[in-house]
Fold Amidohydrolase-related domain-containing protein.
Amino acid sequence: MIVDAWAQHPTTRLVNHPMLDSLRRWTRDQSDSITASDRELPVSVTTDAMDRAGVSKSLISAWTGPQGDLISNDEVAAFVNEAPDRLVGVGSVNIARPMDAVREIRRCVKELGFKGVRVLPWLWELPPTHARFYPVFAECCELGVPFCTQVGHTGPLMPSDVGRPIPHIDQVAIDFPELVIVGGHVGYPWTEEMVAVATKHANVYIDTSAYTVKRYPPELVRFMAGHGRRKVLFGSNWPMITPERCLADIDTLPLDEEARNDFLGGNAARVFSL
């Protein structure tokens, strides 16, 4: 079983947003480049991309930022309802209104059946150590769902410092030892810091979204093959990049069968209680 730990089924609001222009520039010569659209795409676009890569399940996320929802929680729930055996919901919340955020997390988990919460610090230009995040962390602990976030530099033209694993993720894990944290995008150029934090804290994990196998930093590959074999989750960041392209060179990784199976799906199934 292959599980994609970070994906989105895109809305037109997301794919047309100017902040993705820099990503389009990077991928303009690739067949899987992000393309603007004037119509909403059917869920089959996402499940077909999964099929081409042999992905069994994808965790698809909402996107909420200071300017509102680029993908709302209710839209994610509707997408999941169209393909309940393939898609799993991950919610997002407005951290500018902490109590509303807490109530929305409860609704996402208890009513919509979501398996995690994702907030992107760079969207808010606030580090995850900021006070506005802490009610979110507490509620994730209470409900037993992972907090998913982005670590490393920011592809869109926004400040990157908020994605630094040390001190930010390290401090959050110290303050909330029960909180399961999944840091997406491998933490580059601070991957060694992210590996150190995931080694230090029992409930901190890394996902490989936004990176192809050939671009995995060497320190991440060593971690995956060794003592971090139960700590790294496959992710694509679809539709920014296809899962098929992300998995194209999977056989080049120096992973034994157990480590490979854990990376491709076993770790995500355990972390997200799939």
About this structure: Strands lie at 3-7, 57-61, 63-65, 68-71, 87-90, 117-118, 147-150, 181-184, 204-207, 232-233.
